[in-house]
## 1
Amino acid sequence: MIVDQGFETMEGASGDDWISVAQSMRAYLRFSLLGGVVAKHLRNLGYGARAHTVMDGEVLQPPLLLLSGLGEVSRIGEVILNPFLGPRLKSGVVTTDLPLAHDKPVDFGLQRFCESCNKCARECPSGAITAGPKLMFNGDAAPLGGDEPPCRSAGARKARRRAGQGRPQRHEEVVVGYRAGG
């Protein structure tokens, strides 16, 4: 499940202000309520069910969002972009043993668009997001499209390279099961 954080207030937010934090927490709370109601209803029908929030869930949400067709991986880390909400969403998962038909992953052209837009690469203050095609580590898409962990400052990156630490082996934050271009 995905929950819209609210267009009107997010348009006025900078990302680091109280509006952003409040909208984020409000969306997580909304899923907690909705997910709990859905899970309870499924249990009342005789099926096992559990709501998984980002705080107490036992599942990794980004791969499930991808596999369920709710979005594609963006250039800004493990953020999933939805074709209707963009990054303005929060997620939650309800697991159940109720037999259900499942959706398939979507391709709404985000990867092709990102290769030509490059706004994330231009706006990233540390330069961790690269322009053009995604870089790959061991067959997986590199996090943030580059070779750095999230939000690494340019100064820390240069200092680490001067110290001879170079390129990392493999980031654990790469979304499991995702292949660039696929």
## 2
Amino acid sequence: MKRRLSSVVPVAVAIAALAAACHAKVAATSLGELVGLSDLIVVGRVIDIPSVEKTRVAEVEVTQVLKGRLAGTTLYLLAQPTWTCDTSTAVKGESALLFLQQPRGRISAMTYKEPPRLRARLQARKNKGPFMVIAWSGRGRMPLRTVRGENYVALPGDVRVPSSLKTIRGPRPEDLSLHRLAEVVQFIKGRVGKSQESGSKSSQVQNAAWRSAQEDDIYEAVLRRGFQEYARYFMWGDGNEGKLKTCTFFLSIKGKDPSDQFLKRFADGSPLVRKGSAAKQFEWPAYTPESFGQAASLSMGGIVWASDTRVGVDWSYFWAQRVAGSCRIVAVRKNGKWVIQQVKDHRVT
């Protein structure tokens, strides 16, 4: 009897130590904190748990997205632990509220190393979807229970909930904390809405700064296409772009002279681009067939943003106060560069 006790005691001590270590390493969190740190929050049902590249993965059919974006209705989540106190798992056929995070790079943890081809294999499956992990070391998985015909959520014991959410005991021994799904969803949507509202102001400032930084690139693309339009219409026909090398243009952008830094983009001098104000001191050539169109004042208006990848700019030119032309040039952003998509309503008077 003593021998049996002596062998049992160390095991019990080890288990107790392991449990204590897990509680020490996985700190308690709150429902609000889970909402904030999750990239994607969904309600869904586990329809399959295949083994892919020796990894247990759950295929989830999503019925409701509460935070984030999902293309389609399928996602895959890691259904096995990555370290000692990770409780990540899945049960086939189970419906759950899921707080998920996008892995930052390939997973490399204490008890799990992500195989290099895992995500490619998942994308080769019939139902495509992103690969996610359960937030807070598995605590972001909250199974649904039906009590008296109403859906409830079973929250882990170490996830705090606001006092406004009513708690009941569930039908199973492990269901110590059940909350009405409708109330939890309402709480999540409220937190997501506040986060988006506060974040929108910051994103608006960042977006305005990004657009401002794009202006010179857009104006350069528009102006270079404008030169082609000028040669085509003002110099009578296609194939006259070569004459541009001998032209002088006086440029204004939104009614002001362009910066010296912008003019350096045309430093090769073909054509010669000068500040608009310099036109006052320019000795315009007398009208002859040879001098026709050899110098002109150009003007570009403000950028009209249809989106962050599509803009329009009004462009016009004048020659010796006798001939004028105008059009709207549409540019789009492709592969990190602004390219001209369309020239609209080119008129010469």
